[in-house]
Amino acid sequence: MATDLDENTITAEAFCRLENTPDPRLHEIMKALTKHLHELARELKLTEDEWMKGIQFLTAAGHMSTGSRQELILLSDTLGLSQLVVAQSHSRPKEVSEQTVLGPFHVEGAPQLPSHGAEIARGSVGDPLLVSARVVDADGKPVADAVVDVWHAGADGFYDVQDPAWKLDESRLRGVFHTDEDGRFSYWTILPLYYPIPTDGPVGEMIRATKRHPYRPAHIHYRITHAGFDPLVTHIFVDGDEYLDSDCVFGVRSSCIGHYPKHEAGTAAPDGSKQPKAFYTNDSTFVLEREHAANAAE
Ligand SMILES: [Fe+2]
Known about the structure:
Blueprint: H1 9-16, H2 24-44, H3 48-64, H4 71-78, H5 81-89, E1 118-119, E2 128-137, E3 147-151, E4 174-178, E5 184-190, E6 195-196, H6 202-209, E7 215-216, E8 219-225, E9 232-238, E10 257-258, E11 262-263, E12 279-288, H7 291-297
Parallel strand pairs: 1-5, 2-12, 9-10
Antiparallel strand pairs: 2-5, 3-4, 3-8, 6-7, 8-9, 11-12
The site of fe (ii) ion (FE2) has 6 residues, from strand 8.
């Protein structure tokens, strides 16, 4: 029956239109999407005006998105969908580092930097921070030549890509490192602070309409890849941050909260340099899961 469809019979007919989908996974996804959208509309008794507002919201999110502004990732993140997908995709043994959301501010092609000694703040004002980190496998053996993508917000709460004048080769607060033969890398930057997600678009309207706060606890993003290992996308949050329990994008894992102790001015830093200003340090260890182990767990 394909005429006189009502709010109930239309769902079975919509399934029929999907039956020739050659890709079985796409067929499954399209059928489930149709089923749940129809159920949502019936449950809410969605009105035409409400659905038009929904379409206008999605249209505005699309228009807001550019190469450096990803409103749809932000929407997925703030609805908890991104973290849900991450959580169900990586049921990992306790000894390996936990994954969390990629977020909307990662860019490919950030500057390649030496394993040690780089300063990525590049003029961003804040409290100096020396990060010393190590990448190991689940047996604690160093992973040399892992590719480590690092990015974080400045003390003003903005990522470099949010500056309209941003250029990739003039990136700040981001970079790509390769671990040394001991699996180590280190860099100077500034201590990140908590920040609001961008609220000048439709996602911001949603945040205000639902009386939520827009803040993410302070963190540094990491994406670590090496052949033979499951890619690790994670953060190291700053302990003590007031938003750790209510991250706007649901991304905090307690195992990803790092210590960032403060050191007084005039003290020697772990890299041997004498620091005229007070500074912070962070030591982190990232444990990668071997690819075959990651596949076997699925
Ligand atoms: Fe972030």
